[in-house]
Design a protein that fits this description.
The chain contains 28 helices and two strands. By secondary structure, it is an all-alpha fold.
Length: 569
């Protein structure tokens, strides 16, 4: 008996046709939806650059449930923060970031939590620095890895450098952070890196061996002596006494000089690239654009990441002429101003980081102010421009750069006509010095002025003329007058700030002896840099001729050995 054939009922046919029609409509609108998602940066359809396997698996496996999981992780992270279980939060933030890598607010929020909120709960400078730096890593190593074209994250990263580690930071542990950054960069680059050599160094181990085949021969000898990796060669503290002797013999052997130099440069570049996500070629381009920078200072790092953010905006027309573009321009002006005012490190003592202005940056910073005012038509930026010009005039005059002081005093009077600027330049400087002494937040600038005055006076006593300046006039009596003037400044400075209640030693004014010692440290450093190889000998002969230097000369390392210890007291 044949089975009766079953046909679809009219109602079923209707729904089947309707389903086919819906699929057709969906296929028609999918490109439009994807275009809109991409325009608003909501899509994960394109593969992430350098995405780890766990991120790919999570996105593929969770699908629509990803949002629910992220909500749960956020709530759990907030609970852990309230309970003070900060170390457990790191893993949660890592998961949240990898589940939503393209949402910049995730990286902005988690980095802020680490560098500001969690760091503020820590009891010591060392623990606070750990969290501040974790916030930097969150943006630099992860946020920008998945969002390399998002200028907002570049802005946030540069802001942390300036706001937490910059010289003008208001964080009570800023000096500790600054010294940590200085030490980390000196361990990689030293005090005076040769960016030309670093920029032209081989990028891979294969290229290095092609450029210098003798490196393979050197490694063969080391391998026979029990060395496991090249890193062992540079980590002397982890080696046995016998291996240390081998390292010393190779370093001191002139036959291996070229190979050792190539290796040092190669590993410097490797650490910069892998640990700091910075490239020497870009650092060099920044110096060609702005002038020499001190890469131990936070402002230089901020400038690097701001430049990357501006480059990202230039690649994307939709970001141009926006508030984010404006913010990057303004932050660049702030970083450049700080790079002028604290251009390079002169000395470190137990409580202060003493920096010298970088006068090469003055025209660049002045032009940046002009460009911002013209581009954005911002009246509020004029106040900062006036403060900058006043600082240039003051710093240039106190550093005996009289022509620079006169030039920018004329600009200041023309751009900001006020009765104050009708004074003669010397009278205006006296007025400014008095004002700065009265202001608590200007103490470090007055201390720099006094150190610089003593530095110039001692240089004049040694050489019979201005040791540094735009002119070299005879200054036999000038040195004595400058020392007396500095002592008057100091007495007034102590009268104003010496008797105030202090919450820490860092807020106590430096003694006059400390100012003298820092001035001599800077003077000695100038001789060592000016006469490479024989500077120490020249300096020792000068000390014999001028006995007052004997009591003031101290080794720079001795001045800084208590820096980190002092921060946790």
């Amino acid at each position: 008996m044949q089975k009766e054939k079953k046909f679809l009922k009219p109602k079923q046919c209707f729904f089947l046709l309707f389903s086919v029609f819906c699929v057709y409509l969906a296929s028609h609108f999918i490109p439009l939806v994807n275009q809109a998602r991409e325009e608003y940066r909501l899509t994960h359809s394109q593969p992430l650059e350098n995405a780890p396997p766990e991120l790919i698996i999570a996105n593929a496996a969770l699908g629509g449930l990803r949002g629910l999981l992220i909500d749960y992780l956020w709530m759990h992270a907030l609970k852990l923060r309230d309970e003070g279980r900060h170390y457990e939060i790191i893993q949660l933030y890592d998961w949240i970031g990898k589940l939503e890598p393209r949402i910049t607010e995730v990286w902005s929020y988690t980095s802020w939590e680490m560098s500001y909120n969690i760091a503020a709960t820590m009891p010591s400078g060392e623990e606070r620095w750990r969290w501040v730096y974790k916030g930097i890593e969150q943006l630099r190593d992860f946020g920008l890895k998945y969002n390399p074209n998002n200028p907002v994250l570049y802005y946030k990263l540069a802001w942390i450098f300036l706001d937490k580690i910059g010289i003008d930071s208001f964080d009570e542990y800023r000096f500790f952070y600054q010294n940590q950054l200085i030490s980390m960069m000196e361990n990689i680059l030293g005090q005076e890196p040769n960016l030309e050599k670093l920029a032209n160094a081989p990028q891979s181990w294969e290229d290095l061996n092609k450029k210098n085949p003798n490196i393979a021969l050197l490694w063969k000898q080391l391998e026979e002596q029990g060395f496991q990796t090249w890193e062992d060669f540079f980590r002397v503290e982890t080696l046995s006494n016998e291996q240390r002797k081998i390292v010393a013999s190779i370093v001191q052997n002139p036959d291996w000089k070229s190979e050792i130099e190539s290796l040092i440069i190669f590993f410097q570049v490797k650490q910069l690239r892998e640990n700091w996500k910075m490239f020497p070629a870009k650092m060099l381009a920044l110096e060609k654009k702005y002038g020499k920078l001190d890469w131990r200072l936070a402002a230089s790092h901020a400038l690097y990441w701001i430049e990357e953010g501006i480059a990202a905006i230039d690649r994307q027309p939709e970001w141009q002429n926006t508030l984010d573009s404006n913010n990057l321009d303004r932050l660049q002006q702030v970083a450049l101003t700080e790079s002028f005012e604290y251009g390079y490190i002169m000395a470190r003592d137990k409580r202060r980081l003493i920096c010298m202005p970088n006068f090469n940056l003055v025209p660049v910073v002045h032009q940046k102010f002009e460009d911002i005012e013209k581009k954005w038509k911002l009246e509020e930026g004029r106040g900062s421009h006036e403060v900058f010009l006043k600082d240039v005039v003051h710093q240039a005059y106190m550093s005996n750069r009289l022509e620079t002081a006169k030039k920018y005093y004329r600009i200041l009077k023309k751009k900001f006509p006020r009765s104050l600027y009708e004074k003669s330049l010397p009278k205006y400087i006296v007025y400014e010095v008095g004002q700065k002494i009265m202001q608590m937040q200007q103490r470090h600038k007055i201390e720099y002025d006094m150190i610089n005055n003593l530095y110039l006076a001692y240089g004049a006593r040694i050489s019979g003329q201005f040791f540094r300046g735009e002119r070299g006039e005879n200054a036999a009596n000038w040195a004595h007058s400058l020392e007396q003037y500095t002592k008057l400044m100091y007495d007034r400075y102590v009268d104003r700030h010496g008797d105030l209640d202090r919450t820490s030693q860092r807020e106590t004014p430096l003694s006059f002896r400390e100012l003298q010692e820092l001035a001599v440290v800077s003077l000695k450093q100038q001789f060592l840099e000016r006469y490479p190889g024989r500077g120490e000998k020249i300096w020792n002969s000068i000390k014999q001729k001028f006995p007052f230097l004997h009591t003031l000369d101290q080794n720079k390392n001795e001045l800084t050995e208590e820096v980190n210890k002092d921060q946790n007291e």
